[in-house]
Amino acid sequence: QVQLEESGGGLVQAGGSLRLSCAASGNTFSPTVIGWYRQAPGKQRELVASITIDGRKTYGDFVKGRFTITGDVAKVYLQMNSLKPEDTAVYYCNAEVSLRNYWGQGTQVTVSS
């Protein structure tokens, strides 16, 4: 069993910044990929950013240089700058371990205009 401990999130004005973090624990195998997804009301869950065990990073098309994922598969950080109201969503940490996906409980990010 893998536990994902999320922190960060909250309310910020448009143009502001937030940092999310996620720590993986509870399994003898390290995640092969860890990252963040988000889901806004009425929309599908989408990839925000992820990092692989060998350091490869992937970002959602909407990020456009505003977000940066750092860290490693044990603990990962998502720095979000130039936030927009459309970034408002629940952000979920996700880790792939031994071909299984694990999800955190989610943290709310709200960007006011």
Assign an overall shape: globular
> How much strand content do the residues show?
over 45%
Task: Tell me, rounded to a whole number, the average pLDDT.
Answer: 94
Measured as a percent range, the helix fraction is: under 10%
Q: How many whole angstroms does the radius of gyration measure? A: 13 Å
What is the CA–CA distance across the termini? 40 Å
Written as H for each helix and E for each strand, in order along the chain, the element string is EEEEEEEEEEE
Please identify the structural class as seen in this structure: mainly beta
Count all strands and give the number: 11
Number of helices: 0
Largest sheet: 7 strands, mixed
Detail the poorly predicted runs: none
Give a verbal description of the structure.
- It contains no helices and 11 strands.
- The strands form 2 sheets. Strands 2, 4, 5, 6, 9, 10 and 11 form a 7-stranded mixed sheet that branches. A 4-stranded antiparallel sheet has the order 1-3-8-7, with no helix packed on it.
- The model has no long low-confidence stretch (mean pLDDT 94).
- With 113 residues, the chain is mostly beta strands.
Key phrases:
single chain; 113 residues; mainly beta; seven-stranded mixed beta sheet; four-stranded antiparallel beta sheet; 11 strands; 0% helix
